[in-house]
């Protein structure tokens, strides 16, 4: 992929820009594209040789291409796809059909996009649950409808006396009031309950609740029984109800292709993109940002600096904390990352053979979830709480080469495993090679319990620990969402209370990454919202 | 509604909230009958014989701070209620033999903290003050029923507006703290403020007390704020009731009788009677019918709706929701009759007369919770105990003492076994845990009484053994207690009201839910 991005834009050191965007991840690129679309002269600076940040495709082993970090797409805002015309720029989303959960007793749970089929399958476990599944689906659609406009909102400041913010809050209150009563209850519960407690109201089948609750903990250092995880459930469900094609999907050519399409749109609008350009410092004078200094010493000036990297890098690494208000610095230091997930990318000689559903078949084309019971999920969390990676982790695995053969040599496959929990801070020692391999072994051993042939078909294995994710992708503590999606770090509290509107204490310095509202995932909303805010400010 | 009804209101359950509600209704001129299933009123504020010659607080060994308005309106001091001026809020013992005391006076606490950490000593007064300010603000919401979500009344909104303007009056940092702290894990909350593990654990225990939450569970911050809110509403110096919780129950009973409330003990309610979609009285287990214009339930919401009401009187959605109202008890009570005063390493007599916590660090609390998740009791429970016979020697023979201990986690639902089989094994664990801090204690045990969540349910009607009549979680709090749309003490059945801890504000033994309900019921009947 790197050869294609090298052609984006031309390097010129003499010009002053309207805006410099630090970081060429999908949010930085989205923000740049919208600014360029509005006629601003924009420069994107990416530290690595390749664009995409965590939404990146790399040929890790010859012939095998991986969505190294983020691996599925669903949250990408439809308005972004439309406004930036991403399909024309090469983005193609392929449906990822269903989720299969193998169980230790040789049974399985398999949910697919075909509603009736899923119902029949759930009825195999519980008739009541099959009926409740309809009700649950309807309820979640209502929830998504309420939440959707909030995604595109500039979070109001409840402590400010600014009447506009209050009106927005009031507007939310009105929309809430107009909901049907039981939707109100659901909405409040989603914001406050644990994923398991929330699901308990509908379902009785353990494996069903375990698999569904798993989306409540992704990227968050909480257990499925911890209050607040129901929200993350919704955060992930959002894609299923209003995503590009109403389902989770894979991107042809890996998730990097999404980033490249956004980059291509940005370039078409006139943005300039430089890779291999690590930023060392954000230049500011008298509380006003004026540009950046690169690691090689070059200084580039701009009217506005927009950082898509996380607050720790932006404010504690690229700036001198003495130049910032101390309460803000405290807030940045308090902001929780707590990366707790890892990634294992495998190159396979053949397809894994699951005991519960032997042979190859459509069950391998969707996601494969290792989440056999709620206790299993909790035990995985317990290991991590005390500073160890889960000996039997929760995993979400996909085999993209089945849907998109271009990512592997003929007859071979790539398999991507999202693994949780792997805490950034280990109690005994650090994430060195030995720990990394031990973690990789735990992952393979876990898969082998359900697909015994896995060990014989592995050609290569790439293990990414939270420390690797931090080093490779510049995500502090390896948190894939640039900070946890917990209630006290959402909406008007994200990332720092009082600074949730993409602006910072430094005039003309903005944030546009996943650390801002509405948070992580390949969504693009932070980038788009930030661009809206910047254009409003700068036109004044 | 029957014109011939002998009573305007029947209150089911003579716990602290039932008594408060009945007494305030009587005071408002409402002809009130209070029905209690046990032989004595008091509910969780009871006292009983542990062994011949030994008496002690059966369940709660401390009241929540008694609400100022309850004391004032009922003039409880006329019925024998007095308060002890105790300087200690709570103490904690460290496994290494040191002790920590949190005093009511933050400066004194800070002085003591200096021995543990100079940073903590420095940070304490500001933290204490902040918590006090936030408590006072939330306390403002505690004094009346939450506004109805569907059809808010101007009066209710007024109190909400009042709180909003109080919110804006807070220092900006506290405004943000309030928004962040509620949904946070209490472990994070305290770790932001203090660095000594023992201090963190002592504070965090407030966030998980009686709950199915560990300190690292998000949302546990709320319960700590609620405790602070209760303190802000307390009768001045009213943190500790002289004579223990039972003295509060006695004073409330005196006030209720003074205001003409008829009290019948040994009267088990079997059913709430409904006629023409309106509660019209109750039927006792003895089949006796009692008519009233209103029925006020002081028992928990699950019991009220799922066993006292017939399902066809409730909308199906309501029944479904209430069947998922969470009331998973996790607290056991162990009472000891001791031949002598145990010697807890590092503890003074003054500390032992108050509440003492045994939880060395946050991980200890979390590990204790881990067991509960899988349906087991903690092998190393965290404990809060007190020795009430120090202040009140009449509770035990000369030189002997009673020790009252809360032990957590003891989940109501045990896997593969039952509390009837595990009662004494768990008691042994509690004894062993105390012994670790007070060598020799176990040899002085004359008698031991173990009350598991199952016993709380059987004996006191607490569904699931949940001491707060339902978990105090973010989704079961304020306008959502017990359910969104029914936070104003009203229920889907007209004329049936809730006055228990399962209604707002719903924390332990403050009289708050009973007082708020009385105001709603009295208005309705006027």
- Tally of separate helices of chain A: 18
Give the CA-CA distance, first to last residue of chain B.
14 Å
**Major beta sheet summary of chain B:** 7 strands, mixed
Mean of residue pLDDT values of chain B: 95
Total tally of structural domains of chain A: 3
- Gap from first CA to last CA of chain A: 39 Å
CATH class of the largest domain in chain B: Alpha Beta
- Extract low-pLDDT stretches of chain B: none
Q: Unreliable stretches of chain A, pLDDT < 50, 5 or more residues?
A: 1-13, 241-246
Number of strands of chain B: 18
Strand content of chain A: 15-25%
- CATH-derived topology of the largest domain in chain B: FAD/NAD(P)-binding domain
How would you describe what is shown here?
Chain A has 540 residues and is of the alpha/beta class. In chain A, 37% of the residues lie in helices and 17% in strands. Chain A has helices at 2-5, 26-37, 78-83, 115-125, 127-151, 163-177, 181-192, 195-200, 206-214, 229-242, 256-268, 311-317, 326-334, 374-385, 433-450, 454-457, 466-473, 525-539; strands at 17-22, 42-45, 57-61, 64-67, 93-95, 99-102, 108-111, 249-251, 272-274, 279-285, 288-294, 299-307, 341-348, 367-370, 394-398, 413-420, 458-464, 509-511. In chain A, the strands form 4 sheets. In chain A, strands 1, 2, 9, 10, 11, 12 and 18 form a 7-stranded mixed sheet that branches. In chain A, strands 7-6-14-15-16-13-17 form a 7-stranded mixed sheet, with helices on both faces. In chain A, helix 5 (127-151) packs across helix 10 (229-242). The two termini of chain A are 39 Å apart. Residues 1-13 and 241-246 of chain A have low confidence and may be disordered. Chain B has 526 residues and is an alpha/beta fold. Chain B has 3 domains: 3-82 and 240-325 and 469-525, FAD/NAD(P)-binding domain (3-Layer(bba) Sandwich), CATH 3.50.50; 104-198 and 217-232, no CATH class; 332-409 and 411-451. In chain B, the strands form 4 sheets. In chain B, strands 1, 2, 9, 10, 11, 12 and 18 form a 7-stranded mixed sheet that branches. Chain B has a 7-stranded mixed sheet with strand order 7-6-14-15-16-13-17, with helices on both faces. Chain B has a two-stranded antiparallel ribbon with strand order 3-4. The longest helix of chain B has 25 residues, at 118-142. The two termini of chain B are 14 Å apart. In chain B, 59% of the residues are buried. The mean pLDDT of chain B is 95. Chain A binds chain B through residues 158-159, 161, 177, 181-182, 184-185, 188-189, 191-194, 197, 200-201, 222-223, 225-229, 327, 334, 336, 375, 378, 382, 385-386, 486-488, 492-493, 497-498, and chain B through 149-150, 168, 172-173, 175-176, 179-181, 183-185, 188, 192, 213, 216-219, 317, 320-321, 324, 326, 363, 366, 370, 373-374, 473-475, 480, 483-485.
């Amino acid at each position: 992929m790197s050869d294609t991005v090298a052609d984006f834009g031309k390097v010129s050191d003499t010009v002053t820009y309207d805006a410099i965007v630090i970081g060429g991840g999908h949010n930085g690129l989205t923000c740049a594209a919208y600014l360029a679309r509005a006629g601003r002269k924009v420069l994107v600076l990416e530290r690595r040789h390749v664009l995409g940040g965590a939404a990146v495709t790399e040929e890790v082993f010859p012939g095998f291409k991986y969505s190294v970090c983020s691996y599925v797409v669903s949250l990408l805002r439809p308005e972004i796809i439309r406004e930036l015309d991403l399909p024309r720029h090469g983005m193609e989303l392929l449906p990822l059909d269903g989720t299969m959960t193998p169980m230790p007793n040789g049974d399985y749970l398999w949910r697919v996009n075909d509603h009736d089929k899923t119902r029949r399958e759930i009825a195999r476990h519980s008739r009541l649950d099959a009926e409740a599944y309809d009700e649950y689906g309807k309820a979640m659609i209502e929830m998504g409808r309420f939440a959707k406009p909030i995604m595109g909102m500039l979070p109001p400041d409840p402590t400010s006396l600014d009447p506009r913010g209050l009106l927005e809050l009031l507007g939310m209150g009105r929309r809430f009031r107009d909901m049907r009563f039981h939707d109100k209850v659901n909405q409040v519960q989603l914001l406050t309950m644990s994923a398991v407690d929330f699901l308990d109201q509908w379902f009785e089948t353990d494996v069903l609740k375990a698999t569904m609750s798993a989306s409540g903990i992704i990227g968050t250092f909480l257990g499925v029984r911890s209050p607040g995880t129901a929200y993350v459930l919704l955060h992930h469900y959002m894609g299923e109800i209003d995503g590009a094609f109403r389902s989770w999907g894979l991107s042809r050519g890996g998730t990097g292709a999404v980033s490249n399409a956004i980059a291509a749109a940005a370039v078409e609008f006139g943005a300039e993109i430089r890779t291999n350009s690590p930023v060392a410092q954000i230049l500011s004078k008298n509380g006003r940002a004026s540009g950046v200094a690169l690691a090689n010493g070059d200084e580039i000036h701009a009217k506005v600096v927009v950082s898509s990297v996380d607050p720790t890098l932006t404010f504690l690494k690229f700036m001198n904390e003495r130049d910032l208000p101390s309460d803000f610095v405290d807030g940045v230091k308090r902001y929780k990352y707590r990366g707790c997930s890892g990634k294992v990318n495998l190159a396979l000689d053949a397809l894994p053979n699951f005991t519960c559903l032997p042979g190859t078949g459509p069950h391998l084309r969707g996601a494969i979830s290792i989440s056999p019971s709620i206790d299993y999920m909790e035990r995985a969390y317990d290991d991590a709480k005390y500073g160890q990676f889960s000996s039997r982790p929760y995993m979400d695995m996909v085999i993209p080469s089945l849907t998109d053969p271009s990512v592997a040599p003929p007859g071979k496959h790539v398999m991507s495993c999202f693994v949780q929990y792997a805490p950034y801070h280990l109690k005994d020692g650090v994430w060195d090679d030995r720990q990394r391999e031990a973690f990789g072994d735990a992952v393979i051993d876990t898969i082998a319990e359900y697909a015994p042939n896995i060990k014989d078909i592995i050609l290569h294995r790439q293990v990414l620990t939270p420390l690797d994710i931090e080093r490779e992708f510049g995500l502090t503590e390896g948190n894939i969402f640039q900070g946890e999606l917990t209630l006290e770090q959402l909406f008007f509290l994200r990332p720092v209370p009082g600074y949730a509107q993409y602006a910072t204490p430094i005039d003309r310095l903005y944030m546009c990454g996943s650390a801002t509202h509405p948070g992580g995932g390949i969504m693009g909303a932070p980038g788009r919202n930030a661009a809206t805010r910047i254009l409003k400010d700068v036109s004044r | 509604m029957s014109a011939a009804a002998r009573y305007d209101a029947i209150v089911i359950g003579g716990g602290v909230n039932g008594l408060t509600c009945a007494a305030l209704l009587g005071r408002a001129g409402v002809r009130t009958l209070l029905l209690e299933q046990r032989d004595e009123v008091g509910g969780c504020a009871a006292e009983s014989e542990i062994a011949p010659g030994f008496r002690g607080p059966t369940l709660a060994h401390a009241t929540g701070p008694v609400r100022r308005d309850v004391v004032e309106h009922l003039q409880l001091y006329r019925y024998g209620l007095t308060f002890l001026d105790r300087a200690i809020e709570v103490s904690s013992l460290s496994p290494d033999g040191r002790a920590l005391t949190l005093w009511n006076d933050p400066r004194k606490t800070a002085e003591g903290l200096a021995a543990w950490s100079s940073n903590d000593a420095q940070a304490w007064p500001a933290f204490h003050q902040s918590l006090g300010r936030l408590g006072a603000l939330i306390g403002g919401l505690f004094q009346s029923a939450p506004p109805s979500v569907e059809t808010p009344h101007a009066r209710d909104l007024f109190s909400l507006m009042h709180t909003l303007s109080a919110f804006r009056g807070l220092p900006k940092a506290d405004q943000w703290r309030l928004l962040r702290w509620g949904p946070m894990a209490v472990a994070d909350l305290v770790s932001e403020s203090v660095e000594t593990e023992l201090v963190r654990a002592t504070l965090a225990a407030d966030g998980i007390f009686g709950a199915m939450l560990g300190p690292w569970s998000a949302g546990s911050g709320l319960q700590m704020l609620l405790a602070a809110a209760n303190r802000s509403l307390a009768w001045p110096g009213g943190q500790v009731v002289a004579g223990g919780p039972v003295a509060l129950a006695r004073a409330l009973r005196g006030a209720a009788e003074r205001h003409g409330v008829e009290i019948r003990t040994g009267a088990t309610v079997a059913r709430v009677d409904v006629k023409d979609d309106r509660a019209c009285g109750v039927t006792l287990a003895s089949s006796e019918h009692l008519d009233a214009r209103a029925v006020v339930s002081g028992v928990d919401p699950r019991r009220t709706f799922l066993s006292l009401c017939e399902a066809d009187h409730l909308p199906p959605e309501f029944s479904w929701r209430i069947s998922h109202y969470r009331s998973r008890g996790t607290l056991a009570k162990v009472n000891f009759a001791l031949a002598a005063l145990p010697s807890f390493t590092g503890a003074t007599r003054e500390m032992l007369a108050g509440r003492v916590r045994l939880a060395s660090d946050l991980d200890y609390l979390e590990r204790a919770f881990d067991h509960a998740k899988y349906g087991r009791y903690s092998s190393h429970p965290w404990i809060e105990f007190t020795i009430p016979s120090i202040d009140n020697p009449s509770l035990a023979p000369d030189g002997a003492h009673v020790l009252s201990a809360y032990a957590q986690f003891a989940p109501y639902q045990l896997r593969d076994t039952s509390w009837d089989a595990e009662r004494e094994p768990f008691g042994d664990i509690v004894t062993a845990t105390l012994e670790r801090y007070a060598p020799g204690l176990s040899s002085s045990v004359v008698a031991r009484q173990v009350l598991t969540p199952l016993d709380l349910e059987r004996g006191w009607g607490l569904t699931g053994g949940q001491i707060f009549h339902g978990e105090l979680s973010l989704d079961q709090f304020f306008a959502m207690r017990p359910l969104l749309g029914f936070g104003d003490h009203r229920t889907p059945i007209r004329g049936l009201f809730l006055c228990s801890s399962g209604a707002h504000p719903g924390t332990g033994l403050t009289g708050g839910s009973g007082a708020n309900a009385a105001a709603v019921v009295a208005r309705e009947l006027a």
